[in-house]
Write a structure and sequence with these properties.
The chain is of the alpha+beta class and 184 residues long. Helices cover 24% and strands 29% of the residues. The strands form two sheets. It has a five-stranded antiparallel beta sheet, with helices on one face. A three-stranded antiparallel beta sheet has the order 1-3-2.
Length: 184
């Protein structure tokens, strides 16, 4: 007997979270995109209410902008899809959390050739808001001001199958050296 089709928006959210299999939880944006493409559901107001109801009723857990289904076994990404994090220097300042506006300095290189594709002495973004690649949202979280971290970002947490022409080819693993300068 096939599984029952999801009826409520909250049921559809649960289906989406399980299908997305994100180890840190699925973002609102990823869930909304999945619902639109796979379940032909595109009602932002109903979706917002479903998230709120899911958390209030204990069906969903929220961490920042990411959601997981309560009671589901934590999904562990396969080895080639895991983010590599190495703290070169642990900072002494405040710790970066989702929702913080962080300023970093960084150098990005291709894992395959070591070629530098980007760098900045000062770049500011909101952590966990999807303004940067997933590898950064996950890899900068937990850093302390003054800290320096090396990130090895697999394609799934970077630019994926499409890459970012002309500097980042498809399916590229990326390396970043990131220094957390400040948190607002």
């Amino acid at each position: 007997m096939p599984p029952k089709a999801p009826k409520t928006i909250l049921d559809k959210v649960v289906v989406a979270i399980r299908a997305l299999k994100d180890a840190r939880g699925s973002s609102r944006q990823a869930i909304a995109k999945y619902l639109k493409q796979e379940l032909d559901t595109d009602n932002a107001t109903a979706l917002k209410l479903a998230f709120k109801k899911g958390v209030a009723s204990g069906q969903l857990t929220q961490a920042g902008q990411s959601f997981t289904v309560v009671g589901d076994t934590a999904y562990e990404a396969p080895e080639g899809e895991r983010l590599g994090i190495t703290d070169e220097t642990v900072g002494m300042g405040a710790e970066a959390e989702a929702g913080d506006e962080v300023t970093v300095a960084y150098v990005g290189t291709l894992d395959s050739s070591g070629a530098r594709f980007d760098s900045a002495s000062s770049f500011t973004f909101t952590l966990g808001a999807g303004e940067v690649i997933k590898g950064w949202d996950q890899g900068v979280a937990g850093m302390r001001v003054g800290g320096k971290r090396s990130l090895v970002v697999p394609p799934k947490l970077g630019y994926g199958q499409k890459g970012s022409a002309p500097d980042i080819p498809p399916n590229a693993t990326l390396r970043f050296s990131v220094t957390l300068k400040s948190i607002k």
